[in-house]
Specification:
Helices cover about 10% and strands about 40% of the residues. It has about 450 residues and is mainly beta.
């Protein structure tokens, strides 16, 4: 029975990839004896080769350490290719209490915490295959963390996928190995990875099996862009390991395994209203969704393993002010989030967040972002009750308040600083509240 089920999942994901391959072969078909026509021209702008089809965007190539007009960039562009490298370093430490030994650490910053990553990405336009508005994205990731539960430590493939736009921008298809944290829910403040340290802090979608950096998973994503800024996005993704990132790396350390034993299908559905800022038009984005996982998770109430894990979510961000008509995205924003998962199958069960942020808080600093975020995470009643029965101390919920500022020091060079007050920083033991300092440096080549 298990083998038949795994074969079904494999067929679903493989069929999705075959559909995309069919698009390519159809685009190249011609009558016998007739030569292929000239391929369409390469992309007119290098920005057409930036990260495609995601909720979040990487900084434009004009905002890179390597000059966009250099012979290196332009030489690759003439062949429809772009290559970039993203890198970053993070440091976090609690400033209220003395550090604990690393083997006693239960939250990020309780002992001085460091992390770093390097992410090379190659994007190729497929005009040579007679495909218009189609891209191939290939990327790898090296990720290191001083505390592995907050990592994981890995060197592996990050993304390897095909992207195609159909029907006058009405349909977008993405298929292959995908880190879906950049494609669903909307986890990045301001929609940019440069300010990712200020994003939505919920881990619930990842508990439910959604793939996330630096890890990857086979997925077939579609986005339907309807009239009046309405959209709908479904996806069929192979679930991540139910035990979390470190276990995923142990079982799939290169990222290439298609379906590790026991990892089944995660179905994601998201719909909403997304309007970009424009002259006289303020940005607005409401999204809601539901993901359902067929992978078996341990039930904390019964001790048995069962399928049916899910995550339901709703988020809203709205531009309150628009002080600069020449730069319509600048201004003050407000937003909120609500998410839930079954507390019988997950340690973190509910998440609520209120956030405000200002893009370009000073006219002289048009690329800076300030944010203030308050969140509350409810811990599973079944997990905490079991721990109490074992004689352990617990927090039943955690509350955080974070203020942070991200500044662009030079093109492609971002610094972020923040302070977070944690009330109930870990499920167990019941350690004191904390005030953590965060410093983050991101570089885009």
């Amino acid at each position: 029975m298990r083998e038949k089920f795994d074969q079904t999942i494999r067929r679903i994901l493989t069929a999705a990839l075959v559909v995309c391959a069919g698009l390519s072969s159809h685009a190249q078909s011609n009558e016998a004896g007739v030569g292929l026509p000239e391929p369409p021209p390469p992309p007119r702008s290098i920005e057409d080769l930036n990260y495609p089809g995601g909720d979040a965007a990487m900084p434009p190539f004009t905002d890179n350490i390597v000059d966009v007009n250099s012979e290196y960039r332009q030489g690759l562009l003439r062949h429809g290719v772009a290559f970039r490298v993203n890198a970053g370093v993070q440091y976090t430490q609690n400033v209220l209490d003395a550090p604990v030994p690393v083997d006693e650490q239960v939250y990020v910053g309780q002992s001085p915490f460091g992390a770093s990553f390097v992410q090379p990405i190659l994007t190729a336009d497929l005009h040579q295959l007679h495909l218009r508005r189609a891209l191939l994205l290939m990327g790898a990731a090296w990720n290191w963390a001083s505390w592995n539960p907050a990592g994981p430590k890995t060197l592996q493939m990050w993304n390897l996928n095909f992207y195609k736009v159909l029907g006058e921008d009405r349909v977008e298809i993405k298929a292959g190995y995908i880190a879906n944290n950049m494609n669903f829910v909307g986890l990045f403040v301001g929609g940019s990875t440069a300010t990712g340290s200020q994003g939505v802090y919920a881990v619930l979608p990842f508990e439910a099996g959604m793939s996330y950096f630096p890890l990857t998973s086979p997925s077939f994503n579609v986005r339907f862009n309807g009239p009046k800024h309405i959209y709908y996005k479904p996806a069929a993704q192979r679930s991540m390991d139910p035990e979390g990132g470190p276990r995923e790396v142990e079982r799939n350390h290169t990222g290439f395994r298609f379906i590790p034993h026991g990892d089944k299908l995660l179905v994601i559905n998201e719909g909403g209203y997304q309007r970009a800022a424009g002259a006289g038009t303020r940005e607005a984005w409401f999204r809601t969704g539901y993901m359902y996982n067929l992978t078996e998770y341990r039930n904390y109430a019964t001790g048995r393993y069962e399928s049916g894990n899910y995550c339901a979510f709703a988020l809203m961000d709205y531009q309150v002010t628009q002080p600069d008509r020449e730069h319509p995205a600048h201004g003050f924003y407000a937003g909120g989030s609500a998410m839930t998962v079954p507390d019988t199958l997950n340690a973190y069960a509910r998440y609520y967040e209120l956030r405000v942020y200002q893009e370009a808080p000073f006219r002289s600093r048009p690329f800076d972002v300030f944010s203030a975020v308050a969140s509350r995470t409810g811990y599973s009643k079944y997990v905490t009750d079991n721990l109490v029965a074992q004689g352990k101390t617990v927090w039943r919920a955690g509350t955080t308040v974070t203020g942070s500022y991200s500044l662009r020091a030079t093109p492609g060079n971002y610094l972020s600083f923040g302070l977070t007050y944690l009330y109930g920083p870990a499920i167990t033991p019941r350690v004191p509240n904390a005030l953590t300092f965060l410093a983050n440096w991101s570089v885009f080549f």
